Amino acid sequence: xxxxxxxxxxxxxxxxxxxxxxxxxxxxxxxxxxxxxxxxxxxxxxxxxxxxxxxxxxxxxxxxxxxxxxxxxxxxxxxxxxxxxxxxxxxxxxxxxxxxxxxxxxxxxxxxxxxxxxxxxxxxxxxxxxxxxxxxxxxxxxxxxxxxxxxxxxxxxxxxxxxxxxxxxxxxxxxxxxxxxxxxxxxxxxxxxxxxxxxxxxxxxxxxxxxxxxxxxxxxxxxxxxxxxxxxxxxxxxxxxxxxxxxxxxxxxxxxxxxxxxxxxxxxxxxxxxxxxxxxxxxxxxxxxxx
Length: 291
Hints:
Elements: H1 2-36, H2 40-53, E1 68-69, H3 77-86, E2 94-103, E3 106-114, E4 118-128, E5 131-141, H4 165-181, E6 198-199, H5 207-220, E7 225-236, E8 239-248, E9 251-262, E10 265-275
């Protein structure tokens, strides 16, 4: 009888272990499936936040055989990404994603960093088969509030008008080419609702009147801002990002401009301008604007 009780106990124990192993496997599978179901936006957000958290699992979102880097100060591929992490300052990096969008295979985000000093930036990732294969960005120092007491990142974050994405992208593409590149300022009224325009550029106040004052001041100080070529326009709903190339104060410059559109008019604007380093200082040969 005692022997039988021992046998029964062993059988129960084995069955219990088998059940626990099965449950553990099921949990792991569900965890993996959950990870696979992340949207590209969620993956981009997690990767950027991992700069701060140190979560190494997000590396799996990058294609190790096909990752192309367009930040000219970072070496190509995963090795370049790893080198940045290894050279993190004491206390690590900080990253706070303020806005995040998706347009087809691209995601684009607006982020506050402590990345070798306080910075604000835009990041663009391109995905293939659920993995990141390319990265572009534009970074600048964080500045004091502008003449309208606005920061480089505050303002609306609410996505809407998803059905108007293409229409809003066309509006911004036309605005950049007509106004910023070709300088047809007599058509400015086509893109704005009077003087209703919220501005986050650190040097410019709200409204077209604020823009006019800033341009007059630049002219007085002989500072030029020239947009030469628009490389890509990405959008989701009422937010549209334009990436352009040109010169600011006679220096080769990358312009990332984020616009919020409402009822067919530009209502809000954020931007980051980055001076492009000389070719001799580039750590990869992929180009800043190869989309």
